[in-house]
Specification:
48% of the residues lie in helices and 9% in strands. The chain has 3 domains: 2-69 and 267-339, no CATH class; 72-253, no CATH class; 345-377, no CATH class. The protein has a 5-stranded mixed sheet, sandwiched between helices. Strands 2-3 form a two-stranded antiparallel ribbon. Strand 2 and strand 3 form a beta hairpin. The chain is α+β, with helices and mostly antiparallel strands and 406 residues long. The chain is built from 16 helices and 7 strands. Bound molecules: iron/sulfur cluster. Iron/sulfur cluster is lined by residues 39, 42, 44-45, 302-304, 308, 312, 314-315, 318.
Length: 406
């Protein structure tokens, strides 16, 4: 649901202040959205992404540069492959869509490729919606015997935690029956018809975000008694065939990814609510002194988990802080879930050694049993082997209950 205009303007102003004066917003892409949805409890990431803060630049300014991102070489190779696949009015691309997703439709001879140029992301989003509406109406008027339409780099908007995110799929195809298909073009190879499952999974999550955004457009296009256009849940993944420049394609069912991502995005805390909790004057501009920047980042609660290492540019910074606090989430979400209300390593050790916690609590009881078993095992080890000579001072650290993990 879009915000009323006045509130929307106030929020945009607030987010611009958070980003810093004259810092242009970094657009959220579908890859970032899919990652955002993978950690819906992290308010830090939600507000930084919502405000369009460049997290890679921020991580460097904090002294913990991120370690992932696509190399310039891979980007250039991907762009060249995409241009080749879309050459000649998208003839090869449409042939693949017809072959893999809609073999019963009339074969594409020549596709319509509407001009989507317009000023700014809002203008391009409106232009895309008009092109989709016209192509769908033309297809329906032809009762499924009409032509194909290729939208090259359309722009879609998706409401994310109360703020619009603008997304740019590689292509969207309108079929002769008026249905819509998302096309993802990737530069990783498809060998003998199959590709790296992790990369295909990431591409499917990304495509699912586009499907969600297209469904919002389709819902807005419902007019009169006409049904909403159908957004297909099987997308087309196009990759280089066996390291060549030829295209190979595969239909990927993204129903599961669409359901998970949709649910996660709807659970994101509204950006407005997070912004309201920040201290006056909070700013994430990368040219601020490191101390101020760290304080600003730390003023927003984070939910670090090891999965952040492959999904968020701030992972090294958040991991250091999480470890320094002794947060159990840094050991993984499953460990966190097992430990219930005990959120720090100190809480866990205290409960395990009987210094705190309700003995009736199943988690506390399990920890005490584990601590007793460990102590028993250590006693057995002591009896079985002579005590090693220890440096003075190290002995104290190895006393039962005072074990130190090095
Ligand atoms: S790395 Fe930090 S900011 Fe990013 S999702 Fe994880 S906890 Fe949140």
């Amino acid at each position: 649901m879009p915000l009323p205009r006045k509130r929307g303007t106030a929020l945009r102003q607030r987010l611009a202040e958070l980003r810093g004066p004259a810092v242009p917003p970094k657009a959220l892409d579908a890859r970032a959205l899919a990652a955002l949805a993978a950690n819906p409890g992290c308010r830090r990431r939600a507000i930084l992404d919502g405000a369009g803060v460049n997290k890679a630049t921020l991580a460097s300014a904090l002294g913990s540069p991120s370690a992932f991102g696509q190399s310039q070489f891979a980007l250039a190779r991907g762009n060249t492959f995409e241009a080749r696949v879309k050459a000649d009015g998208g003839a090869e691309l449409l042939r693949l869509v017809h072959e893999k997703l809609d073999p019963g439709a009339v074969p594409p001879v020549k596709a319509e490729v509407p001009d989507l140029t317009a000023g700014g992301p809002e203008g391009r989003t409106a232009r895309t919606a008009l092109a989709l509406r016209d192509a769908t109406a033309a297809a329906r008027a032809g009762a499924g015997t009409g032509g194909w339409t290729l939208l090259d780099h359309p722009m879609l908007a998706l409401d994310v935690a109360g703020s619009p995110a603008f997304l740019e799929p590689d292509a969207v195809v309108v079929h002769p029956d008026g249905s819509w298909t998302v096309v993802e073009i990737k530069s990783f190879p498809m060998l003998d018809g199959s590709a790296d499952p992790a990369k295909v999974g990431a591409a499917a999550r990304q495509a699912a975000v586009y499907v969600l955004a297209l469904e919002e457009v389709a819902a807005r296009l419902v007019q009169g008694g006409d049904p909403a256009p159908v957004v297909r849940h099987r997308v087309l993944l196009v990759c280089p065939k066996d390291f060549s420049n030829l295209a190979a394609a595969s239909a990927v069912d993204v129903r599961k990814q669409r359901a998970v991502t949709g649910r996660q995005l709807s659970r994101l805390t509204r950006i407005e609510d997070i912004a309201d909790t920040l201290p006056e004057g909070t700013c994430f501009a990368p040219d601020l002194p490191a101390g101020d920047l760290t304080a600003a980042v730390e003023s927003v609660p984070a939910e670090y988990a090891p999965e952040c290492l492959s999904a968020c540019e701030l992972a090294f910074h958040c991991r250091d802080r999480s470890r320094a606090r002794g947060a159990v989430t840094s050991l993984g979400r499953s460990v966190r879930a097992e430990l219930g209300a005990l959120t720090t390593v100190d809480d866990v050790l205290s409960a395990a050694h009987g210094r705190s916690g309700d003995p009736q609590d199943p988690t506390v009881a399990a920890l005490r049993r584990a601590a007793a078993l460990r102590a028993e095992a250590l006693r057995g080890t002591e009896l079985a082997s002579p005590k090693p000579e220890l440096e003075p001072g190290l002995e104290a650290e190895l006393e039962p209950g005072g074990a130190v993990c090095r």
